[in-house]
What we know:
Helix content: under 10%
Amino acid sequence: MSLFRQVLSVISTVIAALVAHASESPSLQARLDAAIRAGQREIALPAGVLRLDAGLRVINATNLTINGLQTTLVFANQKGFGFTFHNCRDVALRGVTMDFDPLPFTQGTITKMADDRSWCEFAVHDGYPSLSENYLVKHVHIFERDRTRWKTEAPDVYARKVTALDPRHGRIEAPPTRDYFDHVAVGDRLVLNKRDGGAVSVRQCENFRVEGVTILGGPGGGVICRYMRGDNRFSFDIRPGPPPAGAKEPRLMSTCADGFNYAYARRGPVVENCHFSFMGDDSVNLHGFTFLVTEVVSPTELLVGWPYTRESVEWTIEPDDAARLLRAGNYAIAGQAAIESFRHEPKPGEDLVAKLKAFWPRTQTAKPAIFRVKLREALPATVGDAIDIPATSAPDWRISGCEFRDHRARGLRIMSPRGVIENNRLLRLKHAAISLGPEYVFWREAGWVEDVTVRGNHIEDCGLTPDMFKPTSATLGAISIIGRKEDMKSPQPFYNGTRRIVIERNTISGCALAGIWARCAREMTVRDNIIRNVNLRNVPEAGRDLGHDVRGPIDVRGVAEVTQTGNRIEPLARPNSR
């Protein structure tokens, strides 16, 4: 092709992109709205790269497939979502590629380090966003200088202060009591992670599909689902997109938060043949409601609350669902009763709202919600106890044939009952590969996990970050079954609430602490696993503040009714180090 034709081709491409930007953004939303009103069964997105100033909304759709096999949507909005689906039934999003421009993060290289390692300076990479105020965030990720990988030795960095020295250079100051920069060096690369919004939001939907979708970036999570019913299935690819114009360095991030977060659902998801990489948080998070008991009206009537607005809580909960009473402090199950009705309390007293805000100090909402729960049987509840509702904790889920690699946090963070984790690959994750058990204490996410099988997974070089070694660490193995209580000074015992767990035929190769570690569980089977290159660090303080420690490749001390058979522990390929 001649130079003239090459230039002409580039000009034509630019003009097409400008036309798409100018004309498709409003008309594409209008086409979606018209298709829903007309009851269309399918809509094909235009081929090519479309740049949209705002996200797309799909509201009240039924029996609709959105096809984008030849479509890349590039969203300019830094808040909100690329796609929002609300109150939809039998809807599928198929084949589309999604990205954001400007990028929801910026990145650079460390150029200078203080002698006492209290601060570092960095230069923003060519082509990546300059240091305007909204990019001066305190959540910082450290990457290797020569490979596109998180730096294993560096912890998650929560800076004291991030300032711009000029639009392309900045300084990060570490808190005085933390050793954030002990293993960070000049030449390492970093990302400033904004976390605001996401790629796909799905709320109050039933029988929803994501098929063959590619997510190249997102200002928050990848696919976030809330208030779900029916059979919901997901197959997608989350990975970093191409470098921006003028860049010489590859993108170091994909989504800024979780890849897939699914909660408050009457049925769990089927997640198959997905790829997750370079997210700023967990690959998969499944959980349910935790409600605080704020008033006991009678043994069969409670006022309970949570820190968010009313949202679609009542749509999700049904009569005869079991309300499970959890004792304050250790969340021991103290009984359950069938729900007769669950209704929003429109004008709660300020004293009840104050109790909620004290219970959820990390999550403040102007008007947290109080609900009146009537029960068919009595429960011995007291103010300060909690309840969860297992039928709405995304039960009956499956995660299989997926790859999880090279991202910041846990691979699978599961707080939902009745599921299978099978034939997945989990590679180079900073934190635990698989975590089972509730987060009642920290994030107040339900709940106790029951009837789960973890089978045939390959786990390699996970759980190597120094964040695993902290006294506050709750996950002390590549596969961890976890539990906490509110106050370690309390004489309350830990409660063995996670039960009927089978961990079998997995291969675990490479973890700083245990291969399999479990607490707060009972009725557990561990069989026919191959474990090598674990317990690479001798860290007596790991988990100490939570009353935990770690000993050996398989550590299930304190688990009631545990069976171990046929496990093969292979010797270390490299020596222990501290």
